[in-house]
Design a protein that fits this description.
Layout (H helix, E strand, L loop, with lengths): L15 H5 L2 H10 L2 E4 L4 E4 L2 H8 L4 E2 L21 H8 L9 H9 L5 H5 L2 H17 L2 E3 H6 L1 H11 L9 H9 L8 H27 L5 H6 L10 H32 L1 H9 L1 H15 L5 E6 L3 E3 L2 E3 L4 E5 H4 L34 H18 L4 E2 L18 E3 L1
Parallel strand pairs: 2-8
Antiparallel strand pairs: 1-2, 3-5, 4-10, 5-8, 6-7, 9-10
């Protein structure tokens, strides 16, 4: 008997109800159709932890196929010419490159994200987090997303890159517009916004890089301008694309992990009380558990460069697989009692940061920001509570709250 389709099992990434709570559907997918073709997007959905983890490391898949095939040769239609600014920007970023370019650029950029470099940022991150938490308390509450979750990672990554404080208000709107293209079947309006933001963001960073060539400082843009390693250098487009990726990835995921995590804690007051009673011991494992429990990146897509077989299903070259991180992180085959929020969970191999060569370069910085952000709010607002149930943003691939109104 054929397995039921993903649609029949309730997978509907454009449904607000599904976006608000996809986990019951994921359970049905894992049990009845762990590898399922989803016709509305033409993708193969993969829902079990073991399969997702293995495919993230499988070199028969890639974030791009253009290092091996042309569009027509791979059976794909080239993107419309009017989308070119977005695809040029995205295609030269670390996340969408494959070796050898990926290896070269990651080697150059990773020097800024060593454990020592990240740890040196802790005093700054803690100060910023405490200032934001204090402001929220002084006002008697407000929107936790806008007041705490968003400003902290934006300020940190902008500080690292050397973006002047006066310009930082430009970053989140550009980032939101660009990441809108990562959603499934984006509209022409979304594409137009992404193209416009790609052009504006690129122009801004080219000007900033030119200024750093004239007057280098101790920031990351200055370091990337001067970067060389064994004779390798970043082209101007690679530099621009790398900075955009660092800004986008450096705050989109952290913003949503913070907001999603607080909403999970507020829905489980006994767990929140446990964390408040022993934050020093529990915060490290709590951060990992909150990333697992309600991961902001629900889906990660890869191209099949050579025929593969997953869970007995043959997936031919030219296909696109959609790895369901949200489902993999709730798989009972890998996590004991996976629907329970366990802030002390020790065995927690969540894949919210990915795996393989595309494992998140900024994971140490994200962990630091999350620990300091949650810690600051816990200390400043011991009676934090929700005002009402929040609304989710319409996106599914990058999933987060539109707002989280709280009182203190």
């Amino acid at each position: 008997m054929n397995a039921p389709s993903a649609e029949a099992l309730g997978f509907d990434p454009w449904s607000p109800a599904f976006v608000a709570h996809p986990y019951d559907v994921y359970a049905r997918l894992r049990e009845q159709a762990p590898v399922s073709r989803y016709e509305p997007t033409g993708q193969w959905l993969v829902s079990r932890h073991a399969d997702v983890s293995a495919l993230l490391r499988d070199r028969r898949l890639g974030r791009t196929y253009l290092h091996r095939f042309g569009h027509e040769e791979f059976g794909r239609t080239p993107p419309p010419p009017e989308h070119e600014p977005f695809h040029t920007l995205n295609g030269h970023g670390l996340l969408d490159l494959e070796p050898p370019d990926h290896t070269r650029i990651r080697r150059l950029v990773s020097k800024a994200f060593t454990p020592r470099m990240v740890e040196s940022l802790r005093p700054t991150v803690r100060r910023l987090a405490e200032e934001l938490a204090a402001g929220l308390v002084a006002d008697g509450g407000g929107d936790l997303v806008a007041r705490v979750a968003e400003p902290l990672p934006v300020a940190v990554i902008a500080e690292m890159l050397g973006v002047p404080e006066a310009d930082r208000g430009l970053l989140r709107p550009w980032s939101e517009a660009i990441t809108g293209m990562f959603e499934l079947n984006p509209s022409e309006e979304a594409a137009a916004r992404a193209v416009r933001a790609s052009t504006e963001f690129s122009d801004y960073l080219r000007a900033l890089a030119a200024e750093r060539r004239r007057n280098p400082g101790g920031d990351l843009v200055s370091a990337l301008v001067a970067a060389h390693d064994e004779g390798d250098r970043l082209s101007e487009q690679e530099l621009v694309s790398t900075c955009v990726l660092l800004l986008n990835a450096g705050h989109e995921a952290t913003v949503n992990t913070t907001a999603n995590g607080w909403w999970a804690l507020l829905r489980h007051p006994d767990r929140l009380a446990q964390l408040r009673a022993d934050p020093e011991r529990l915060l490290p494992t709590a951060v990992e558990e909150l990333m697992r429990y309600d991961t902001p990146l629900q889906m990660f897509e890869r191209w099949v460069l050579d025929d593969i077989e997953v869970a007995g299903v043959r997936i031919p070259r030219g296909s696109e697989v959609a790895l369901l991180f949200g489902s993999a992180n709730r798989d009972p085959a890998r996590f004991a009692d996976p629907d329970r929020l366990d802030l002390a969970r020790a065995d927690n191999p969540h894949i919210s940061f990915g795996a393989g060569i595309h494992f998140c370069l900024g994971a140490p910085l994200a962990r630091l920001e999350l620990a300091e952000s949650f810690g600051a709010v816990l200390r400043a607002a011991p009676r934090l509570s929700p005002v009402r149930e929040p609304q989710w943003r319409p996106g599914y691939v990058i999933r987060g709250l539109a707002e989280l109104p709280v009182e203190v």
